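Hi X.,

You mentioned you wanted examples for the new student's onboarding notes, showing what a folding record looks like when two proteins sit in one file. Here is a clean example. The first protein comes first, with its sequence line followed by its structure tokens.
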Amino acid sequence: MSLQQNIKKPEGKLGILVPGIGAVSTTLMAGVLATRKGLSQPFGSISQLGKIRLGKRTENREPKVKDFVPLASLDDLVFGGWDIFTDNAYESALNAGVLDKDLLEKIKDELSAIKPMPAVFDPNYVKRLHGTYIKKAETKMDLAKAVMADIEHFKTENSCNRMLMIWTASTEVYIELSKVHQNIENFEKGLLNNDHGISPSMIYAYAALKSGIPFVNGAPNLTNDVPAIIELANRLNLPIAGKDFKTGQTLMKTILGPGLKARLLGIDGWFSTNILGNRDGEVLDDAGSFKTKEVSKLSVLDSILEPEKYPELYKNMYHKVRINYYPPKGDDKESWDNIDIFGWLGYKMQIKVDFLCKDSILAAPVVLDLALFMDLAQRSGMKGIQEWLSFYFKSPQTREGLTPIHDIFLQKIKFENRLRHLMGEDLITHLGLDYYEED
């Protein structure tokens, strides 16, 4: 059944609030502003440049995604957020060093007007950073209420019709699921009692949902993937999604892994290492934060390769991930992968990948798409975990008991079929029986 008639129109301004006005978020903001002025194009964004096939191949219907589903216009986006430093978005973008200064100068006034609100921050969760622009309160519940007040103030000041929040701040230290996370009652008691199991990112997620806006987790933190936050999202009929933007090395794994498996090529080992010098690299130089990222990165291949189904090919695969902080690299991350594979009769081969990428350039269109599609989800009445957006994440959230899909090609099919379903179009399964049959 089509849900098209139930989708509310994207009228008015859409406020996008980000905890963390750093390299990723300022690259996003600058890109949207530059696109509005005709200075560049939003390359990498499915919502802006992507096309979607509808019906049979012979129908030749392939509109742009933004012309097919009712998405908010880039002209209607308003940006704001929090940071642990006072730099406005222009100053932060200069410090990040991702974008050329001549481009930033052309949008300086607009970026300079985006000033951070003081952040919820605790150095116990991000040990390599020392924030100076932070909120003070007696309890974590008080901090959550302060964030809610910020959200309401921003909405009023900017005349926003709708809002959402996307975590673009640093990776927090590894936290295990505990009693405080099991239900919303325990969670709210934990906020009042300053429970250590509640991190700053969880405070933001709680504040967003209590303010009636969707929340997306772009880092590998334990944040909105706990029973309490999932329960709250479902109770309040709000969509949530996460976690950890799929950008560099993991993007390559989700492209290469399915190809190797499709040809039933075995893998003895997959060694991955990264060097990067931005704030993210500095944070990940701490063992606690690295463990959070490592768990996210290591989970990908098992789901794709299914060693329990193909033990002779993948059961004994050795998988190692390393991240090294190297300041001269800045935001230009470099990842190396050494893949030891075997084929016919067990003969050994190797694949080596050296990916020199710009982390924030890859992340910015992901954040834009997630913002627009999460807004679509809310206007369509969707609630809880939005698994159809797994395409954008390293560790996609799923409903309890389900294994995440990491194969990027299967993720893309799921994503597009969700859009088709929303607009009353037939799903595409590519199940034509032979070349005479149209599919």
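Then the second protein repeats the pattern, sequence line and then tokens:
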Amino acid sequence: MPIYVIIPNMESKARVYFATARSGKWRYDDSMPGKLERLLNQAHLSSYFDKDEWVAVKTHFGSPGAYRVVRPVFLRTVVNALKAINAKPFITDTVRIQGIDYLEVANANGINHLSVGAPVVLADGLYGRDSILIKAGDLLNEVAVASVIHDVTAMVVCSHVKGHINAGYAGAIKNVAMGGISSSHRHYGWKCGRGAMHTIGEGAMEWDGNQCEHCLQCVEVCPLEIIGFVEEKIVWNSDKCWRCGRCQRVCPASAINFPGDDERFMRSMAESAKAVLGTFSPSKVLYINFLTEIQPECDCMPTADVPMVQDIGILLSYDIVAIERASIDLILKEKHLPSSAAEGLEGDVFKSIHAKPYEFQLIEAERLGLGSSRYELITLS
């Protein structure tokens, strides 16, 4: 399949449409679902998506205990807008925990056919191994793009903006780069899955027995149940491990480490995003960022912390770099909320908590031709 790259026009600014979370009038049109409907009308969907075309609505299903995902009411609003132009939408994500369990999590978080008005499917199958190898650049070489996302011709990326253990900031790029590929490949394992981004090929767990408190949180958080202790020494299955990093994140004693390079990780995400988006023709992907319940952790963690800043609103664009830049700019203007992880912190809320150079994912995505950081913010009246 040919690789398509959208080359931004550097003389013009990408359009990013914005609707505030504030509601100034007691009417449906001023509610967030109503505003999302109006944003979708401005997106001119019929100019980009065809009658009877299958359209993947890519989102994140969450985890047991992590419920601050894109709300079903918003997903249904997107589905209804696509149905209005006679497209055929479905809701999808790649396997984050065991496939059957992940569908149960989606249902518990209110994401099912009845609530969203469209089928809910796993993009890489029940076992998370249905994928196609795609060239991905110098860092990753090849990545296992989920077969459904690889084969579908159009996509709407609905991203819940939040913090992230490795990415620092997680929005549309992370949703595409890590959520568009499988955790592991059927034959090549984690080295062609999202685990390759986490560790950039190093992949060996480091465990400090002197630091370990044997609290077993790493055992409890592992989505594959492949960590255990024998005679107070850690045992893990390296071949099956997805390198998700959850064990490292929850360890209170910092006894677990997966070595990696933050800047290379950010650049590898851009490479993966390019590989995923390269399976689509130009202008067949729409991005919607939800700046609501902006918590410090990813939705794949087994809990959801309180928001760090106030709800801001919804952004929509056909440019992945522009919508990310606009999202960050809006968040950084907000005051940190009391009684949150951001209370008392100064400056950039994401860097204050995770200390990751997240801007490199945008810089590299722009360098690879995925979009432009120059944008015009068009606020819904």
